[in-house]
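Input set for joint prediction.
Command: fold jointly, output tokens.
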Amino acid sequence: MTINYLIETRALTRRFGSQRAVDDLNLLVPAAGVYGFLGPNGAGKTTAIRMLLGLIRPNAGEVRLFGQSLNGNHRSLMRRVGALVEAPSLYPHLTGRENLEVTRRLLGSDRNLIELALATVKLTKDADRRVREYSLGMRQRLGLALALLNNPDLLILDEPTNGLDPAGIHEMRDLIRRLPDEFGVTVFLSSHLLGEVEQIATHIGIIHEGSLLFQGTLAELQSKQQTQLTLGVKQLEAATEFLVNTGWRVQRCDDLLNVSTKAPDDAVRINKLLVDRGLDVFHLAVSQRSLEDIFLSLTNGRPS
Amino acid sequence: MSLFRALHAELLRLKRTLAFRVVFVLPLLIAVLQFFVILRTKKYAPGFNLWQTHPTNSFQIWAVFMMPLLIALVTALLNGIEHSDKQWKHLFALPVPRYAVYFAKLMVAQGLILTSTLVLAVVTGIVGVAGMYLRPELANAGPVPYVWLAKQVAFIWLASWLIIAIHTWISMRWSGFPIALGAGIGGTFFALFAASAALGKYYPWLLPMNIFVEGRFATALLLGIGGGIVAALLGCFEFTRRDVN
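tokens >
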């Protein structure tokens, strides 16, 4: 089966002086759903996004959108892309509606799309207020409305919740989550917050120091989660030997044993095995390695 | 079509901006100055014709001082709104050719300078008529020389194309007022020295003034238009290849 990728980058590289901001990046973003592009601050997310939009040119590699090279097809491809890069670019002296009208005139798109975009981001009521009076959350939503004005198939959002308060983050997250189902748009979203991406993304790419460390579905990332059992057994030596011989990964920590397992259910099996063997289990605790632990271990413990 | 759409969008961006207001205010300052010059002049020589001196004085002050500064200010304001909220990245991510954005900006700047020069011509006529009314000894000057005024507006404006193109590029290339205005003030300041030099007839910031200098008219017009077109094309070439950080 051939998978159609809306975004495909091939060995994409961008240097600033001697520093490689993006290094040999091979993104594969399938159609539909939300792709979370995750990485600590300074990982190369914004540089990669700028190359996806043709704002800066790569030193090497290629960007392909909708199966076509961006090079030489920028205008035709951008007709299908909406973008919000970092803070939204707005004219504070104009009203929200006038800001949308400026972009609509440039795009030559239908006037009705302004009302639709305003309704989508819930700004209809405030559309005739000047943008300088808007809160940060409203500005961000207006930025999203601007990105929706050409009725895009692909929406590229760079840190859309940056600087928002918890209520604003919640509102923006809900909005982004609705977009694939209601408008059939694929969302490519960058963030340095795992918790945020985890809640809305179907696919995840983790970038660190310009390189892609993981790419796949959220389920694939979750499968990397490991459960750890901490066991207290009276006969420590015998228990260790028995578990190692039966194929478990065991680590001794003082008077306790740490056993790595795949699923929480393994605790029941191990306990039964030990008890059946006549070993006295006096302590059993289950802990799970979270996605955050995986993210931190992939990015060398740098959450942001 | 793209250029038309970019122009249409550019006109909406002008709404409520200082760039739009200043276009009407600066010519009025010259008109007020000229009005008081006419009123305060103690005695006019017999046979003095107001229309032979007053409009020329107004246009010369405009061409050598006000117009170059207005060009620097207007282009800085027009492009400053794009720099202020990092609008370039939004504009360049749209399916709009960069040349359309560039020439729309340039044409709006040209339009504003033309409007301002036209306002100057209108208020110059009004001040002249008011002067004749208040100083009866000037009444023999005859009707307002509309055709002459219109021609001067066109000549000065065409000669200013090179300055407009230079300032459009400067204000698009660098964010911040100091560079754009510094170039305008510097260009105007050096014009005072260049005026008396032979090479002054090629100095961009002197071209509008050279319209009134004997022997420099043709050069001012040709260099203004031709240089303006070449500078605009070079600026556009750089603009369309720029990375947006």
